């Protein structure tokens, strides 16, 4: 195997599959492995290199599958291990690699280990797998400290002991149904190495690591100033007691050793909400993880200076540890970019953008999303595409309250609607049940007219964003020099981002209102919008040039 094929991930385009909302193969209203297998040719033809599949493990779905009850199986609503193996084989046959989600910070409260912990007494080996502590105050009726869940409310829950008496408290960064593991316990560390080995042996090519900056806690348990931490926010204090602690790096060195024992080596991608960028680079040293989501870029405003700053910082800091930058505009936790870019304030706020308000100009958002696609795909390194991003799907902002399932809705006292708006099942056809998602409805309601945004509708429109993504991915592979670094083109105007890759390719993005003059070029490869009559690049548009 060549080094280039071993390092495929360094400039890979990875498509995120939120499996419950991708395609329903058995007609029960929820996406599944059968539906994904049927749509593999679509993903191959789109031009991506790999798929990242959100959790498909057995789960009560209190947090969209991130509350895992069994790390070595498939939830029956999605399929079984036989179907998973068939998916892996078929994807590999089409040249697509498969990444799964691993959720090492916590389990579901329906996990066998947690049930054993609840049945066992304080101080038992069963409880030592999780973070149980005695309470404070009279009779231990107050939490051990003031830590709060990032989903809202206290991060501690009191249990009833087997004899019926009020008992200890357990810690959960997220929902009450997601008790945190105690990663100081060797049994927990050994268990996850075995889980990784199980899936690698089945043929999985790598893992995206959920809350990669979590896991290790300072159990001297200092109180925190509040309100200091929001959903998917970066820790706002140094030496945070349960985020970005030094001990996570020892864990990942062990994980990397396991990944490198396979031929070809397996891949790890970090979800790590840390700041400044130098903190992120520490996760990507050559004996730890391979790459990480670039949340600084995702959160940037539609503004030339902000984007250029983020690009410069990302490339420079990650290059210091030999890691590529990885670009991302959307995922299952953040507001869809068509909606965000259609607002007056375009920065992503706290990372989830759930508190964004104000009117949305969807046509403006779509125009900017088209330009943003060309910008992202021209940058050096890899990129992620969230399902439906290639269709220009907007955030569904008006889901009926009785349909909301994100735990943020309940834990915020019905003040934050949560992340369901970016998880509405995909439309595949213009007409038919659930716009082709499945034979009989969808687990989240699709809005009226959703079929007009479908793959079928986009296929029929040569000017659609889907066709632009296909053309960009094809051109990127054929023309953009993957090994060439970025060099800025100066003198193009304060509202323009322009750069070269090598001597023959340039990307120009006009984020201003007035048309911009393009640099000297031999030909135009792609544009996100038509040029003006005099050949200038209009506002909120991008062009790829052959120099």
Q: Flag low-confidence runs.
A: 228-232
Biggest sheet, strands in spatial order?
9-8-7-3-2-1-11-10
Report the count of strand segments. Answer: 16
- Classified by CATH, the class of the largest domain is Alpha Beta
What is the average per-residue confidence, as pLDDT, rounded to a whole number? 93
Report the β-strand fraction as a percent range. 5-15%
CATH topology of the largest domain: TIM Barrel
Largest sheet: 8 strands, parallel
Q: Structural class, judged by helices and strands?
A: alpha/beta
Assigned CATH superfamily of the largest domain: Glycosidases
Radius of gyration: 23 Å
Q: What's the CATH architecture name of the largest domain?
A: Alpha-Beta Barrel
Q: Give, in order, the helices and strands.
A: HEHEHEHEEEHEHEHEHHEHHEHHHEEEEE
Q: Give the end-to-end Cα distance, rounded to a whole number of Å.
A: 34 Å
GO molecular function, one term: alpha-amylase activity
Organism: Haloactinopolyspora alba
Family: Belongs to the glycosyl hydrolase 13 family.
Domain Glycosyl hydrolase family 13 catalytic: 16-423
